[in-house]
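General statements about sequence and structure are easier to judge against a single worked case. When preparing material for the folding task, we compiled for one chain both its residues and its backbone structure tokens. The amino acid sequence and the backbone structure tokens for this protein are reproduced below:
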Amino acid sequence: KLFFTDYGNAAKVERCDMDGMNRTWIVDSKIEQPTALALDLINKYVYWLDIYLESVEVVDYQGRRRQTITKGRQIRHLRGLAVFENYLYTVNSDSLSILRINRYNGTDIQALARLDNAKEIRVYQKRPQAAARSHACEAEPHGTPGGCSHICLLSSSYKARTCRCRTGFILGSDGRSCK
């Protein structure tokens, strides 16, 4: 799945399949300006910053079990969001510091380091990632991903895929080749 925020005409947090199909709103009320998003892939939670409402909130992948992690004026200056173990990490653009927020007790907020111009944050861990299972977009023996001549996108599951073409091309009737 692909998760994203939108604060155009109607602010929301959404998800869709990797090919853009099955677009679903998972948060569409009591939300104004969601500017950053982080996923807990193990427990299947979506965290987001709302700088207008000055809050950090969380829901599960279906938009249920919504909770406010922390709220207050300090949220207005936060940029980027990452989750790792028991903490959320973000950048305070006002104090130019990396903050660590306990995701279970939002009152435990610590400044970890100072940076001059950070706007985003990512957490990488040293442990190797688990091997991914085979999927529909794996390269075939002749080298094309999932049998698609240009772009292969996972669809509703790791076993399904959708072929797409680069700009200026159209998908052929076989659903795989681009002309």
About this structure: The chain has a mean pLDDT of 90.
